[in-house]
Structure formats: C-alpha cells, structure tokens
Amino acid sequence: MRIAVLSGGIGGSRFIQGILAAVEPTDQVTVIANTADDITLFGLRVCPDLDTVMYTLSGGIDTARGWGRQDETWHAKEELERYGVDQTWFGLGDRDLATHVVRTMMLNRGAPLSEVTSALCERWAPPVHLLPMTDDVVETHIQTTLDDDKRWIHFQEFWIKHKAAIPVHAVDIRGAATARAAPGVVDAIAHADVVLIPPSNPVVSIGPIVAIGEIRDAVQSTSAPVVGASPIIGDSAVRGMANQLLDGLSIRVSAAGVAEFHGSRSAKGILDGWLVDESDASQVADVERLGIAARAVPLWMTDLDACRRMAQDALALAETVGRS
Amino acid sequence: MRIAVLSGGIGGSRFIQGILAAVEPTDQVTVIANTADDITLFGLRVCPDLDTVMYTLSGGIDTARGWGRQDETWHAKEELERYGVDQTWFGLGDRDLATHVVRTMMLNRGAPLSEVTSALCERWAPPVHLLPMTDDVVETHIQTTLDDDKRWIHFQEFWIKHKAAIPVHAVDIRGAATARAAPGVVDAIAHADVVLIPPSNPVVSIGPIVAIGEIRDAVQSTSAPVVGASPIIGDSAVRGMANQLLDGLSIRVSAAGVAEFHGSRSAKGILDGWLVDESDASQVADVERLGIAARAVPLWMTDLDACRRMAQDALALAETVGRS
Q1: Which of A39, A102, A117 to mutate to test the interface with B (most CBs of B within 10 A)?
Q2: Which of A59, A87, B118, B226 has the fewest CB atoms within 10 Å of its CB?
Q3: Residues A296, A301, A305, A310, Cα dihedral to 10°
C-alpha cells in the first residue's frame, strides 16, 4: 500500500507513528511536510515541521517536549541572548543547531530543500519518505496588532514569542501562490492508495500545503481517498494554541468547523472522509451534510496504541470512501 | 601612553594580559589581531585569534585549554560529526558557536569584520581596543604533501587536523597582497608611543599582519619604537607546533633566527628591539648584529606576574631604543 500523508509537526508526527504501527513494513509511507513554519534565525534556516517529523520517527526527538532533540543543551542560545541578538525567543538547542547549520550550508551552496532533507535523512533514516511540500520559500505571516500597531509578523513570532495570545486579523501564506510542489510530492499523491491528513492545524499546517496549486490539484484529482482527523476535540485544539488562530479567522472551533474549512473534494475541497472524536459524535451528521464521510472514534493520541487505532480507523474510513 | 600590539592568539593574549598588568588604566592598548587563521567552517566564519584575544581579556576563555569558551559543551560538534560533514576536526564548542553565528549573520548582512568585532566586543568589553588586521579575506595556506600529492591546504587544516606533522613546502598568505588595513589600524601604529610584538608565531601570526602593505609601511615608518619577544626559547617554540613550520621554511628555530626573519627596521624589517629568553643570552650579540637591540630576560609566561615582568622588560627596551 502507498500512503501519502500531509503533515504538520508534533500532531502529524504522532499520527504517522500510528500509521507505521498500523501498516505492514512493506507499505510505503510518504510524508509531505509543511514548510511554511520555516524561519531564518541568525542566518540559519530552521524547518520545524520537517525536523519534528524526522526526529520523531528516528528516535531523536525529546518526547516530553514534543520538539527538538533529546539530551539537549542550550548553551549557544544562552550566548546568543548575551550577545543581545533578536529572535532568541525561539528554542534552538545545541544539538538541533547542528541540523540547521548543515541545512543552511547546503542551501547556501545551491541545493534545494528537498535534496537537503534527503541528505539529513541519510543520517536519521526515518521509516518514511520525507519530502518538504516545496523547495520554494513559503512562509506563513500573521496580521496582528502589537502596541496599537496593526502589522504582519512571522508565524513563529506569533506562535512562540507571543504564544498566540495576540489578535489574528489575517493569515498570509507568503509565496504559496507561485510556489511549485517539491519533486516527488505530486507523484506521491497521484499514485497513493490513500491520502491521510493528521490532526494538524488546518490553517498553518495543512492549509499551507494545499495552498500550493500543484498540491491542491493533486489532492483534488487523485484517485485515492483522502481522509483526515480532526485536530479539535470538543471546542478546543488537541494540542497547542489553535483556538485563537481559528477564532481570529472566524472558523468554527469544532470538528465540523475544521471539516467545513477543508471542504469536501466533491465541492473543490480536499476531504472525502473525516474522523471526529467519539465525544463529538453529534457532529457526524453535520460533517456528512458537507459531503464528507464521517466517523466518531477516539482521537486522543495518548500513546502509540491510541495512535495506531486512530490510523486504523482512518484507513478503514478510507476503504469505505474508496469503495463508494 | 598609547600601545599598539600586533597579536596572534594564545601567546599574544597572555602577553597582552601582561601589558595590561604593567601599564596604567589610563594607558590605551590597541590590539591588531591576525585574521589569516580565519576559516569558514560549515558556512560560519571563525576568527580564532580575534576570539582568543576577546575571550582571554574578558574572562571568557577556557584557561586550561587556552582557546574556546569556559564551561563549554560540544553537542553541536558531535551532531555535525554524525551528519558526516567535513571539517569537524576543528574544535567548535556550543558557546563558541554562538559567536560565529552572530559574526556570520552580520558579515552576510554586509558589515565589515572590524564592525562585527566591535559589536562582539560590546558584550565582552575587553580592556583594549581590538581590531582585525583587515576587513578583507586573507587566509594562510600551506603547501604540503598528502597521500603523495603535493597540494595547498588551509592553515587550520595543517595545524589542527594534521597537527603540523606533515611537510611544509611553502606558505601563502592568500589575499594579503591586495588587502587593506582595517579602519584604525594604521592610525593606531602611526600614533603609538610603542609598538609591541608578542611571542607569537612569526610566519602565521605576525607574518600575515605585516604582509599587508599598509600595515608593514605603518610599522616601518612609525616614530614609535617596535619591540618584540621571541616565541622560541632554546630550539623549540614556547607554545604549539611552530618548529615544523619554521623548519619547512628554512628559518632557524632560535630566538636570533626569528629576529632575522622579522628583520631590523633599519633594513626594511619590522624590529627595533627583541627580547630573548635568559637561557638564550648568548644570542643577544647575534641579534644586535642584525641592527636590533636585544635583551635576555625570562620569557616563560608561566603566570600573570611573569607576563607582567616580560611586558615591563619590553617597554623598558622600547624606551632605550626610542631614546637612541
């Protein structure tokens, strides 16, 4: 079986762990990671979602924190702070730093991000084919109000520095309109047996991936069923601080609200099927009215077994949708 | 009093500590540091001599090792090795790395090295005015034989990776012929009351500084006396692996041999005075025959007090020379 996954960082990685636990070793999993969270810090190109997937699937992640390297130290960051440089609000560990140094060195020599990602993965050897969504620079910027001043800031500044606790007036996936899909991305979707969408943030993780025309077209035209899982349980995000972001964009903070945001493939959206949490079973009918097959199943990714069952539920729903 | 010092790394830093201990707080010490040891590693610009001087004079150095930061960790370097990148033979600590990241970021934004050095020194506040010899890229390359292949390698590769234990056929101070002195360098030498040359490597520390035409001219034409201290005691270098380098260039490995290499100002060289170690007192006459005033004094920089006395001896010799 060939599975294509559109993924953000932490939630995506855990869901992918579930997929890997659910499928056979001979099944091929291609992960198309969001790169719109990427940011240049102190001249170094940082790709949080690519790295979270790579570290998580290869045993390098700090499992408690969910991001960055295990056995990490923070001495370079301490020193950067003492030099008084900007952007030290970003958590850049000493081990993690090496990844960004190698990546930046390769990018500056002219290698596209997909090639760099492949080179980094030679060391980590994650049990998936990991691709950036694009080799072009695409960055999510948030329009907010800071000090009574309405302005645009990088998503990471909004998310990490301001902990998403400032107004969201608009979101701009800068560069997405002209970006090309990275090599292998369109093929992976076109030739997949199933396309899965983890419970990642719809606006800043999944949104940017399908904001790239070639990828959106591929998702809309693939013969594979496309099934996602809600990142919202009840009225709040499973992880992180998505509520403010969704509220700010007038997206209903509910499983059905996110399904509506993504839309049905039959109506130029990206979904055939949608998993909602068992506690949101009452929303199944709402989702199905959108033309999206829905199932209520446990969506809390509390441990690997829960992630595995969730992936099995997504694959089962895909099979139903695919047959219909 | 205005003192200009032409300096390499470790030996220079210790000698400067001696100068600072010997002079009044109102005396101005300008350090013109060798930058031909500089190297770009993993896309980061590393300036070993500038940093050694900056760290040493500001309490940031690892005193036992003599280079790099105290309380250092090596996690980024470990990771770089695991990524299999080249050049991991260079000792790049996590704290130290931050200095190179900040420097590279500023250089890439177009700031000249002198401005970057000044910015880094804002944090460290060394009690001297620290200047790079030049804002241009000047790098020492060594012609050697590796695997039966005669070729040029960067000085750091020769020194650190190969521990100077490979043949030296020639030394090229690349870029020196066209390099300009950094802002402030020529003035500091021209308006100095005394110019001091620490017991630094003549070929790869002091040599590159005076290989820059404007600096050599300034040293040769300043009204200040120019006095140095021998980095050789007996028949070996006080520190490091200078012997192989000097041997390879057919420079006599002795206090008088180095004095001859630098030459007397009266004969288009750079020295008026030269300190040799008390154990080399027999060479005083040889040095003086070169037209260079010489004194035999203790040159082992065993502790700060020894460094202070050595600086006092250099200043005393300068006074004698200046009056003559």
Answers
A1: A102
A2: A59
A3: 30
Of B275, B299, B302, B304, whose CA–CA distance to B21 is shortest? B304
* Nearest-angstrom CA–CA distance, A193 and A201: 24
pTM > 0.80: yes or no: yes
Superfamily of domain B2-36+182-323, CATH level 4: CofD-like domains (3.40.50.10680)
Q: A86 CB contacts (<8 Å, ≥6 apart)? A: none
Q: What is the ipTM of this complex?
A: 0.92
Show contacts of A81-87: CB within 8 Å, 24+ apart: A82/B123, A83/B98, A83/B99, A83/B102, A83/B120, A83/B123, A84/B123, A85/A42, A85/B102, A85/B105, A87/A41, A87/A42
Residue B222 scores a pLDDT above 70? yes
- Chain A residue nearest residue B74, CA to CA: A94
- Binning pLDDT at 50, 70 and 90, where does residue A87 land? confident
Q: Which of A77, A83, A92, A123 to mutate to test the interface with B (most CBs of B within 10 A)?
A: A83
CB contact (8 A) between residue B42 and residue A105 = yes
- Closest residue in A to B109 (Cα) is A43
Residue A279 burial (10 A CB sphere; 0-12, 13-18, 19+): middle
Domain ranges, ordered by start, for chain B: 2-36+182-323, 139-174
